Amino acid sequence: MHEDYDLFVEIVDAGSLAAAGRRLRISPAMVSKRLARLEARLGAQLVHRTTRRLLVTDVGRTFYEDVSRIVEATRAAEARVAGRIGQPGGPLRVSAPTSFGRLHVVPHLKGFLDRYPKVELAIDLDDGFVDLLGERIDVAIRISPPPAKSLDACLLAENHRILCASPAYLASHGEPKTLDDLADHRLLAADHQLPWRLEGPEGPATIDGQSAVRTNSSEVARDLALAGLGIALRSTWDIGLALRDGRLVRVLSDVSGATDVAIYAVQPRGARDTPNASAFIAHFRDIFSPQPPWDR
Questions:
Q1: The pTM is what?
Q2: In the chain, what are the domains?
Q3: How many whole angstroms separate alpha carbon 121 and alpha carbon 195?
């Protein structure tokens, strides 16, 4: 029975019988047979099958929500037991923001897997806030205000943001002396990053405007600043190397981005004691504490 619950959750998450079969490494015919067996046992149709797509019925959606919680709780219970009798091992799925993941998570994965070779790690880089339960994510790294109470959160590091520009841009356009001077400069930001919420000697301030180049990529905004196109508000984890080697310099040194955003590891509520996730979080907490490498 438990295996059929797992199967149904996979079918809904994957969006098709064939995709669920690939995830579970069984044939689509076997997936269909087991789904039919589950529906017969329940006396209800859980999905509508068409040639192009699979539609979950209202009954199926309710059943999926209930069963997802059962499956998640069962996995958490099994993981807690496994943690008491041995080393972390088995599947661990992690999500992280794209740039932060490439710069500060991926380079440290070898050390984690060398220590815990039985862990079967999968990592997804995505700038959206994924549905942890729906996407079967064990740990998500998020750069955000304090996460909702529906999640277990562990603070990994503060997120310091500063105004910066290249020496070439400042040599050509002059260096702003006050926040009001920013109105005379090119600003660089990805979509939805403006207005900037800043904190300075006189308290909170908001800077609005339009980016000199419109882009949906935060990495592009950083690269445009490096190229000398304007002034950007960037996290020190993103530009630490460029600050150290002089390709970027800080502008308005007494001003910083709002400090209500930090770097967290989050899990579904109640999953805190799972050994794989706990080991992963502890690994990165040790690396980022008491001061993260990019701020040293």
A1: 0.70
A2: 2-80 (1.10.10.10), 88-158+261-295 (3.40.190.10), 161-257 (3.40.190.290)
A3: 38
